[in-house]
Amino acid sequence: MGLKGILIIAAAVVATIIWLLRDKLRSKQIPAALRPGNRLPNFTALDEQGNSIESGTLRGSAAVLLFVRGTWCPFCSKQVANLTKYYKAINDAGARLVLITPKPLQTTRRVGDFFQVKFEFWLDESLAIAKSLGLMMESAVPDEYRDEYGEDTIWPTSLVVDADGIIRHTELSRFIADRPNPEKLLAIVKKV
Questions:
Q1: What predicted TM-score, i.e. pTM, was given to this entire model?
Q2: 125-135 pLDDT, tens digit each
Q3: Which sign, positive or negative, has the C-alpha torsion 62, 134, 129, 155?
Q4: Domain 30-191 has CATH 3.40.50.300
Q5: What DSSP line would sit under 97-155, residue for residue?
Q6: Comparing C-alpha atoms, which of 120, 45, 55 is closest to residue 87?
Q7: First-residue to last-residue Cα distance in the chain
Q8: Taking a C-beta distance cutoff of 8 angstroms, is the pair 67, 130 a contact?
Q9: 136-185: per-residue pLDDT in tens?
Q10: What does the CA dihedral 62, 90, 69, 153 come to, rounded to 10 degrees?
Q11: Could you tell me the residue ranges of all domains in the chain?
């Protein structure tokens, strides 16, 4: 094999390594406001009845907040399905479980009803919460879902907040299929 063959193989190896690491290279850093030890920032969402609800209402009990993109995302749907197995244990540990989604609540509630769980669903329809917390994903909704969901969405994120409103755990998805382990979230809830 000549020099040309070695260079082609080396280029192929480098390209393969870059391709395998592409999602890690795109991973997002935890926004400063959501770093563990900080108080959960104040924000306003809509509850399932369309009423305004403040993040401050979470104080008094621990909470697990999941920022999910919507039912169009198979990985978010799988995350909700996996979490249903731990819903009761998280509640029994004294924590609320809140899913924050861009829209629409009716679709998201159907997922909860299908799995027979009583998650709290909060709506961030204008993505104002995502923007203010640094969790915005621009142009991330696939073309076939943009008529219903818009172009931008939420960066999949999980937070565990203690009863005083202090963030104890923050996890941002590192790549498209990455979601938090519900067992890990439950273990953290039991510690706070």
A1: 0.79
A2: 899 999 999 99
A3: negative
A4: no
A5: EEEEESS-HHHHHHHHHHTT---EEEE-TT-HHHHHHT-EETT-S-GGGHHHH-S-EEP
A6: 120
A7: 61
A8: yes
A9: 989 988 899 888 888 998 888 999 999 999 999 999 887 766 777 888 88
A10: 10
A11: 30-191
